[in-house]
């Protein structure tokens, strides 16, 4: 199998990205391409850098070296000659509104109702009229099966319900790309299914997504491409049948034998 | 022993006396609790009795002065001075807290230095310092310092600078209590810095800010009595002016004390409702 070439329709294009926290090098030259409409699942042991990589894609973490393009535009920087200059905050925020991010711990705003959690960004960041935003929000809540929870506060919901609200909140900005950072890791086992069902539904609608997860079954069922990361590098990438059933690298094999 | 034997043993005793009638549960006796309560109540009664029956308190005089014009004027000054100092102190304190938490090392250092300096200086020293600042700067912007800084202005200035140092720490603690993930979520949603601060961080920080701020408000209310040293006529100083004339020291101190107790109680009730407001959405808030 040849190295993945970058087609014209690449939604995400990551080129030799490096990132250190102090003396700890977390990303050691990552290359990754995800096509429009594709679902990429990133697997890997803890500390392999997969969450950090995901967070660089919407500039929650700044890269030390390399560059990331989403839908053609350079994330967090603009090129001037041979330099990448960091964009002003306003521009970065605008880029983020096109990239939905779902956190492991949901990070819903506890002092706002479910509806206000979803309406906040469209109204304040995209300047949508509140009435339209509320209408959209109710539609999204219906889609994730929580139409009756609009006026509840997050703490009154189960973990699975909170994560579904968080997904609706990310969708409210109509992002071109959705990033999921271990969306089911903080959930009780019996609640994992309801969240994965919502994500599967999005996948079937052709949303471009990158999902960091430990759910191998989900990867097998939904992923168009599976990326295995270890020690700050992409070890291998390919169709789920290849990476999960016929891994070419010893490290992938070792990891899969432990989690399967 | 296998679980099998256990089951058999249980089955072999069908006439367990525990199963015959429903058994009433009797809590542990606590005679010590009753004794302690009785002793404390008796002591309280003795104390109260001595206060009510001791004519030297002159409760009649207390009644005469309780709503006298000069005492009410003093009370009014105490109230507005507390309100102004708390409002300005927290405004400046919030700014200092924002400085302290900013990425700018100069702002961080300035904020740290301010809090260090004004928490180190006794408020009494500070009031006297500002009251006598004319010795250092006889004129400020061409105006005589004495005219610019009257006693009331000095009181507001000194108390506010003092209050701000403490308020900065209270606000900073509140902001630090907000989960880092909240800010990241707001950033990921593209919310502006201003919006993140006012809509996401501060309302959540208020839950941790309100209880110590309530404490400070009550402390400030009583603490304003210190302005009597620069002859500002607050509640206490108004009472003192009366007893310097009439020598009825105790009754006039009682007048001031009762007013402080009343206002403090009202503030306590108000704090309860403010806390309830900011607890919305939390497990304990409903």
Automatic annotation (TrEMBL), chain A:
Enzyme superclass (EC): translocase
Membrane topology according to the record: Peripheral membrane protein
Domain ABC transporter: 12-256
Compartments (UniProt record): Cell membrane
Segments traversing the membrane: none
Pfam family, one: ABC_tran
Keywords, ordered alphabetically: Amino-acid transport, ATP-binding, Cell membrane, Membrane, Nucleotide-binding, Transport
CDD domains linked to this entry: ABC_HisP_GlnQ
Cellular component annotations (GO), alphabetically ordered: plasma membrane
Signal peptide location: none
Reactions catalysed: a polar amino acid(out) + ATP + H2O = a polar amino acid(in) + ADP + phosphate + H(+)
GO molecular function, one term: ATP hydrolysis activity
E.C. numbers: 7.4.2.1
Entry's family note: Belongs to the ABC transporter superfamily.
Name the UniProt record assigns to this protein: ABC-type polar-amino-acid transporter
Organism, as annotated: Streptomyces albiflavescens
From TrEMBL, chain B:
Segments traversing the membrane: 34-52, 75-99, 111-131, 249-270
Cell compartment(s), UniProt: Cell membrane
CDD domains, A to Z: TM_PBP2
Domain ABC transmembrane type-1: 75-268
Keyword check for Membrane: yes
GO biological process terms, semicolon-separated: amino acid transport
UniProt region (Disordered), positions on chain: 1-22
Keywords: Amino-acid transport, Cell membrane, Membrane, Transmembrane, Transmembrane helix, Transport
Keyword Transport assigned: yes
SUPFAM superfamilies referenced in this protein's UniProt entry, alphabetically: MetI-like
Pfam family, one: BPD_transp_1
Membrane topology category: Multi-pass membrane protein
Entries under InterPro entries matching the protein: AA_ABC_transptr_permease_3TM, ArtM/GltK/GlnP/TcyL/YhdX-like, MetI-like, MetI-like_sf
GO molecular function terms attached to this record: transmembrane transporter activity
GO cellular component entries: ATP-binding cassette (ABC) transporter complex
The family this protein is said to belong to: Belongs to the binding-protein-dependent transport system permease family.
NCBIfam families: HEQRo_perm_3TM (TIGR01726)
Protein name stated in the entry: Amino acid ABC transporter, permease protein
Organism expressing this protein natively: Streptomyces albiflavescens
């Amino acid at each position: 199998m040849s190295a993945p070439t970058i087609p014209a329709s690449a939604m995400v294009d990551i080129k030799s990205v490096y990132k250190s926290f102090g003396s700890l090098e977390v990303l050691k030259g990552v290359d990754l391409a995800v096509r429009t409409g594709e679902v990429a699942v990133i697997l890997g042991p803890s500390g392999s850098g997969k969450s950090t990589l995901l967070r660089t894609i919407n500039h929650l973490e700044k890269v030390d070296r390399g560059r990331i393009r989403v839908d053609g535009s350079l994330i967090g920087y603009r090129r001037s000659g041979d330099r990448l200059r960091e964009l002003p905050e306003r521009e970065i925020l605008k880029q983020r509104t096109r990239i939905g991010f779902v956190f492991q711990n949901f990070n819903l705003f506890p002092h706002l109702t479910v509806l206000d959690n979803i309406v906040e960004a469209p109204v304040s960041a995209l300047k949508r009229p509140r009435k339209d935003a509320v209408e959209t929000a109710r539609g999204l809540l219906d889609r994730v099966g929580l139409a009756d929870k609009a006026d509840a506060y997050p703490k009154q919901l189960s973990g699975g319900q909170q994560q579904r609200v968080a997904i609706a909140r990310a969708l409210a900005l109509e992002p071109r790309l959705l990033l999921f950072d271990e969306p089911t890791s903080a959930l009780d086992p019996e609640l994992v299914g309801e969240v994965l069902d919502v994500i599967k539904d999005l996948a079937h609608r052709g949303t471009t997504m990158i999902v960091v997860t430990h759910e191998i079954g989900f990867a097998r069922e939904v992923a168009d491409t599976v990326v295995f990361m270890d020690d700050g590098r992409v070890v291998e990438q390919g169709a789920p049948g290849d990476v999960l059933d016929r891994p070419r690298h010893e490290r992938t094999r070792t990891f899969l034998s432990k989690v399967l | 022993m296998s679980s099998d034997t256990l089951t058999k043993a249980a089955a072999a005793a069908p006439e367990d006396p525990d199963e015959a009638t429903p058994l009433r549960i009797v809590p542990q006796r606590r005679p010590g609790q009753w004794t302690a309560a009785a002793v404390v109540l008796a002591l309280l009664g003795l104390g109260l009795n001595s206060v009510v029956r001791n004519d030297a308190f002159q409760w009649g005089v207390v009644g005469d002065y309780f709503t006298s014009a000069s005492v009410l004027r003093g009370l009014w000054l105490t109230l507005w001075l507390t309100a102004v100092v708390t409002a300005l102190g927290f405004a400046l304190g919030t700014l200092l807290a924002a400085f302290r938490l900013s990425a700018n090392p100069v702002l961080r250092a300035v904020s740290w230095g301010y809090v260090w300096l004004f928490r180190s200086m006794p408020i009494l020293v500070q009031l006297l310092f500002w009251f006598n600042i004319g010795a250092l700067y006889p004129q400020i912007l061409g105006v005589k310092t004495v005219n610019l800084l009257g006693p009331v202005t000095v009181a507001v200035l000194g108390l506010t600078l003092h209050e701000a140092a403490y308020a900065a720490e209270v606000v900073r603690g509140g902001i630090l209590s907000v989960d880092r993930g909240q800010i990241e979520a707001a950033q990921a949603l593209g919310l502006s810095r201003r919006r993140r601060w006012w809509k996401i961080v501060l309302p959540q920080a208020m839950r941790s800010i309100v209880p110590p701020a309530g404490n400070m408000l009550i402390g400030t209310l009583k603490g304003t009595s210190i302005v009597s040293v620069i002859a500002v006529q607050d509640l206490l100083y108004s009472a003192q002016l009366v007893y310097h004339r009439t020598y009825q020291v105790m009754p006039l101190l009682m007048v001031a004390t009762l007013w402080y107790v009343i206002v403090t109680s009202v503030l306590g009730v108000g704090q309860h409702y403010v806390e309830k407001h900011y607890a919305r959405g939390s497990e304990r808030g409903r």
